[in-house]
Amino acid sequence: MKTLNSKLLLIVSIIMISVSCSSTKWIEGSWTGVGKQIDNKTWEMEFTAKPQADYKINYPGLSCSGNWKVMSKKGNQITFREEITINEMSRCDQGGEIVATKINDNKMELVFYLRSYDPVNPIATATLTKK
Questions:
Q1: pLDDT tens by residue, 35-69
Q2: What are phi and psi for residue 25, nearest 5 degrees?
Q3: CA-closest candidate to residue 21, choices 67, 81, 78
Q4: For labelling alongside 117, which of 13, 21, 36, 53 has CA 20 to 30 A away?
Q5: pLDDT in tens, 60-76
């Protein structure tokens, strides 16, 4: 019985790891789009996601770029924390929270939050298209 329980635990663990790893596979690739703030200002975006959780963001018109770090994953939704590393004193906010949701294989929706500005409501949205 102990051997059976150990085998079941191993199988469940493998399934959990497999599901966890594959849940971010959809976001891999290069994406582009336009973000729109609540004041109707817009900005271009270039996002690149590589295997092994390497997420890079570039805002060409705002002259800043950086990294997104995964905070949580749930189904086809990933929540990131943004860290601006290039030109961090520019018009890009530091420490934003981004919720990325898969629409289909070639589109994703982004919702941006800056909790220090508004703890509940988003400050911007975007739809990105895979290149």
A1: 999 999 999 999 999 988 899 999 999 999 999 99
A2: -60, -35
A3: 78
A4: 53
A5: 999 999 999 999 999 99
Q: Is 44 helix (H, G, I), strand (E, B) or coil?
A: strand
**Contact at 8 Å (CB) between 70 and 83?**
no
> Which residue would you say has higher pLDDT here, 91 or 3?
91
Query: What amino acid occupies position 92?
Result: C
Element counts in the chain: helices (H) and strands (E): 1, 8
Look up the pTM and report it.
0.80
> So what's the pLDDT on residue 23?
65
Helix ranges (DSSP H) in 2-95: 2-22
The CB-side HSE value for 35 (13 A sphere, CA atoms) comes to 26
Per-residue pLDDT, 9: 43
Cβ neighbors of 116 (< 8 A, separation 6 or more) are 95
